[in-house]
Amino acid sequence: MGAQNHMGVDSDKRRSRVNDLFLEAKAKGLVDEGRRLLLLGRGTGSRALFNTIVIDSRTASLYDDAVRFTILHEESHLRRKQNSRFLTIPVIILIPVQIIATIQWAWLDGSQTLYVMSLIVVSAYLVAALLSFIFLKRWLGEDERRADMDASRALSQVYGVADPRIVAAAVLSDPGKASRDGIRRKILKALDVHPSFQARMEDIGEAAGIRQDDQAGQLSETGFD
Q: Are 150 and 76 in contact (CB under 8 A)?
């Protein structure tokens, strides 16, 4: 019971600390006043969702500048016009509508022709979504690059962080990556729209004004090589 209470206290402290950092960023004008903060469990990932910045417990347990980087990165997604919105919103809207229409036509009208036509349209939407993901994955990666660079500039210029790459590496590293089996790792890599780790480090360093030839070493997902 004592251990559970201690974990609960640690969780409350972590939640309070992240909320303070979020309010601090608002006070500095780095986060819009209307934003909300949502903390979720480990493994849920950090993301921007409508007017909400979502942070998972792994990120929340990192040191202050790493949490700041995450908040600033997600805020950039919300402020900028994202390529991903233009690619995904039509598909997200059209597919459910078409599926509902298919069910209605099949059950209410009993029209086999309409049913088959509807299935063809749904299939076409799914193929279009897949092709968009494959061929326009680069556009989605641009969203991530801009968000990284915005967060890096803010850390450097507002918070005085000398090398935001080190901060970002703590956020972007994947402790479970090495333990994944080969097939799962390949699938996740194929679905991932983010640029490579090293490419992100280069963008973050560039945004902070760190020249390529001034870098002391190459960052890896576990630190400096």
A: yes
Q: How far apart are CA 165 and CA 187, in angstroms?
A: 27
Q: In what order do the strands lie in the sheet with 52-56?
A: 36-40, 52-56, 47-49
Nearest to 84 by CA among 152, 43, 174, 145: 145
Q: d(Cα 52, Cα 31) in Å, to the nearest integer? A: 11
Cite the beta strand spans of the chain per DSSP E.
Answer: 36-40, 47-49, 52-56, 219-220, 223-224
Query: Which residue in 187, 194, 203 sits closest to 137, CA to CA?
Result: 194
pLDDT in tens, 35-85: 999 998 877 788 888 899 999 988 999 999 999 999 999 999 988 876 566
Q: How far apart (Å, rounded) are the C-alpha atoms in residues 134 and 190? A: 9
DSSP-based three-state secondary structure for 174? coil
Indicate the pTM of the whole model.
0.71
pLDDT digits (tens, 9 = 90+) for 136-145: 677 778 888 9
